[in-house]
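Milestone M4 deliverable, item 7.
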Amino acid sequence: MFRTRLIAVAALPAAAALIAGLVVGHAGTPTARAGSLTHGLSAYVLATSPGPLPACSEDGSNCTAANQVFQHIHVANRNALENQNGNRLTVPNAFDVDSIDEVISVDGQPYSEVHWTPPPNITPSGFTNYSARWPATVVCGSGPPCTDVHNPAVVPGEDIAAFMTGWIHGDTEPNGIYVFTFTIHGTLNGDAVDLTASSPPIRMTA
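Output delivered:
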């Protein structure tokens, strides 16, 4: 099960659930896009299901694809590619991803939150199966084999899913309009940059 609601429940500002703008993705799936560039960077969320999602049993015994949605958190880097010296983390104008804060709201009210960090120090520690949902940077060092794992990075000209997560709607959860908001923390040429993007509203039903 990949319900991030199991991690924590906290009271956070309802403003975190605001949507910048709703468009339709390439495959006809709903996408919420960030409204403007920040340091040549932008973020948006591609959801695999427009909803509504019916509830399934808490133990997962009757859960199917109809009860779940995945969110792909995209980062687009529109900065100039000056050169390719170094690796993904050290190329000029690369956006190095440090962590992602996820906030889930239901009908505009905070419901749950989780703090994600990528390999090699993935958190929450119980979600090690999520390690491959990050495009981590691998450096050979003295290898092969190349096993020196570093944070993900989005190089100039790329538009990639920096992380993927998901939600199964259980029958003990509230029904209503869910919005998943992600704040991507990282650095660009050594300067701290935060990007925020929200999923489209997704209705969860009984």
